[in-house]
Amino acid sequence: MKKNIWMRIAAFVMVLTMISTCAVGGTFAKYVTAGEGADNARVAKWGIVISTEGDGVFAEEYDGTVETSVAGEKLVAPGTRGTEFTATVSGKPEVDAMFHLALENCKEVILPAGTYTDYTHLGADGQYSDTFTLDEDYMPVILHLNINLGGRNIPLSGHLTEIEAMLNRLGDGDGLNATLEANTEIPAGSTITLSWEWPFEQNDAADTFLGNVAAGVVDAPEGCETQIAYEFVASATQID
């Protein structure tokens, strides 16, 4: 009788073991499908550098013969010329870029067309009675802008407002634009230079009149300007 009981217990344990084995097999034996992906990137290179040389084209004195009487004020005069201002462009961007060049907020030395007292000749009566006539506006300062960029060399010369207009005509009405394709090395020697001169031999009577207006001994006629100023813009921008 006891033998039969132990045999039944053994058979029951064996059945439980088989059930447990099936359960484990059902838990860990299954189909598996997996996929993985990875990627990385860096910021595209820009690296365009626009460096400038010089503090500007105007100065407080020239060759020891022309010197301002007011410290910090720069001036221009007949027979003077300025130092050259240079902007150098370099780099190899990984994006398309556009260079923009423009002259803005220009102010020109000018004596408008008209008839004026000639202060270069004092009459025998001690009066300045002679006159001179300008058939067109007199703008004595001549600027030179040379653009060497992207394989293009563009020399421009003229009055300040004339060069401003030239840049607009070369561009889109707001300066000159030049494009550079991605991964293109900017050629060595890519520069923009600006200089000026007031030629000594032009119109002595007009030059003298402007000098007297600047000194305050002669009233400035309408439209006359004895100051020169500009803002030169050289920039590079990524484009779509």
Q: Specify the overall morphology.
A: rod-shaped
Q: Helix/strand-derived class?
A: alpha+beta
User: What is the strand tally?
Assistant: 12
Query: What Rg do the Cα atoms give?
Result: 41 Å
Terminal CA distance? 96 Å
- Write out the strand line-up for the largest beta sheet, numbering strands in chain order: 1-4-11-8-9
Major sheet attributes: 5 strands, antiparallel
Count of all domains: 2
Average of pLDDT: 86
Q: Which residue ranges are poorly predicted, with pLDDT under 50 across at least 5 consecutive positions?
A: none
Helix proportion range:
10-25%
Oligomer: single chain
% residues in beta strands: 25-35%
Descriptive keywords:
240 residues; 3-stranded antiparallel beta sheet; 2 domains; 5-stranded antiparallel beta sheet
Short summary of the structure?
Helices cover 21% and strands 30% of the residues.
What report would you give on this structure?
Helix content is 21%, strand content 30%. The chain is α+β, with helices and mostly antiparallel strands and 240 residues long. It folds into two domains: 1-32; 49-238, no CATH class. The strands form four sheets. A five-stranded antiparallel β-sheet has the order 1-4-11-8-9, covered by helices on one side. The radius of gyration is 41 Å and the shape is rod-shaped.
List the helices and strands and how they pair.
Elements lengths: L1 H27 L20 E5 L7 E2 L3 E2 L17 E6 L6 E11 L6 E4 L13 E4 L7 E8 L2 E7 L1 H11 L5 E5 L10 E7 L6 H12 L13 E10 L2
